[in-house]
């Protein structure tokens, strides 16, 4: 079974290989070379991309074929145990491929989303996060060391390890402007009852807080249903965290795939120009700080996804 893990890498890397093949095929010398190889071997008139798809198709068919073989194999047959073992192994392989594919797609969405945020500050999301859990519009009050700093209408994006606060871009409604970030490792979630909050001295409704050693964020939702969604998401996230079930951050290999496939339909539909340099996704960033009001120094900013590519 372990020998089939290469299929997962092959499937995840396929968009990259297809893009490279398409680029080469537009060049006459490569197009002629590929066609000459096909004719020389007497192969059917199928594009090279079609041949590259074959391993992906086969790995999906193996569990189905083995399932049919298992049905036709009597319990008393000497091969029954071997067929059943092969069937279970290939099901596990297919499941692993699907899980890795979903994870890569989740990482791609995170990177693509961060690219739409103007004025990004702090570490890239992929440094510690692997999934977006929830988002919504909230009224936020920020208090630092007992002093209220600001009150804003924000759009909050909850990831598995970080909460990002943004303002809407008034000209481009589908884009956002970075406001603040909260590391969930350093914050405590508090469900607030309707009424006057003792710390902020204001009456609140449908509210909850994130509290750190020096900072409090008081969030007010539009209605009870919206608050319930936030509370349930935080509770589920905290339960997974306490059980040690947190998703691991992106590996360098996953980051490279994200960079190479950042020209996904998700990105292109937002009119975002993808970047190709590894450093622009923070692959070599040594700054792992992440917390309320965090900032990067000028050197670390070079690794942020939001940094514009040089011409």
Automatic annotation (TrEMBL):
Signal peptide: none annotated. Residues 1-100 form the DH domain. It is found in: Cytoplasm. Residues 273-311 are annotated as: Disordered. Residues 279-301 have a biased composition (Polar residues). Keywords: Cytoplasm, Guanine-nucleotide releasing factor. SMART domains: PH (SM00233). GO terms for biological process: intracellular signal transduction. The keyword Cytoplasm applies. Residues 131-239 form the PH domain. GO terms for cellular component: cytoplasm. SUPFAM superfamilies: DBL homology domain (DH-domain), PH domain-like. Gene3D superfamilies: Dbl homology (DH) domain (1.20.900.10), Pleckstrin-homology domain (PH domain)/Phosphotyrosine-binding domain (PTB) (2.30.29.30). One of its GO terms (molecular function) is guanyl-nucleotide exchange factor activity. The keyword 4Fe-4S does not apply. InterPro entries: DBL_dom_sf, DH_dom, GDS_CDC24_CS, PH-like_dom_sf, PH_domain, SOS1_NGEF_PH. Pfam families: RhoGEF, SOS1_NGEF_PH. PANTHER family: RHO GUANINE NUCLEOTIDE EXCHANGE FACTOR 4, SPERMATOGENESIS-ASSOCIATED 13. This is DH domain-containing protein. The lineage of its organism: Eukaryota, Metazoa, Ecdysozoa, Nematoda, Chromadorea.
């Amino acid at each position: 079974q372990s020998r089939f893990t290469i299929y997962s890498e092959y499937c995840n890397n396929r968009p990259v290989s297809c893009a490279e093949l398409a680029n080469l095929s537009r060049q006459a010398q490569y197009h002629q070379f590929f066609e000459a190889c096909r004719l020389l071997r007497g192969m059917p008139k199928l594009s090279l991309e079609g041949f590259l798809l074959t391993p992906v198709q086969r790995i999906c068919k193996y569990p189905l074929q083995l399932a049919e073989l298992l049905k036709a194999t009597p319990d008393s047959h000497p091969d029954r145990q071997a067929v059943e073992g092969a069937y279970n192994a290939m099901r596990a392989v297919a499941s692993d491929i699907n899980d890795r594919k979903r994870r890569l797609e989740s990482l791609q969405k995170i990177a693509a989303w961060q690219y739409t945020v103007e004025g990004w500050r702090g570490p890239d999301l992929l440094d510690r996060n692997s999934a977006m859990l929830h988002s919504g519009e909230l009224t936020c009050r920020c208090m630092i060391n007992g002093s209220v700093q600001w009150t804003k209408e924000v759009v909050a994006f909850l990831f598995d390890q970080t909460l990002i606060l943004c303002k809407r871009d008034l000209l481009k409604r589908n884009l956002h402007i970075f406001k603040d970030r909260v590391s969930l490792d350093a914050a405590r979630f508090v469900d607030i009852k309707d009424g006057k909050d003792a710390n902020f001295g204001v009456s609140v409704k449908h509210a909850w807080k994130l509290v750190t050693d020096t900072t409090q964020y008081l969030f007010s939702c539009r209605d009870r249903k919206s608050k319930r969604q936030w509370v349930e998401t935080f509770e589920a996230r905290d339960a997974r965290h306490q059980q040690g079930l947190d998703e691991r951050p992106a590996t360098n290999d996953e980051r490279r795939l994200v960079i190479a496939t950042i020209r996904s339909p998700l990105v292109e539909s937002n009119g975002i120009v993808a970047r190709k340099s590894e450093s622009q996704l923070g692959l070599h960033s040594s700054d792992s700080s992440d917390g309320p009001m965090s900032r990067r120094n000028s050197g670390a900013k070079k690794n942020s996804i939001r940094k514009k590519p040089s011409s």
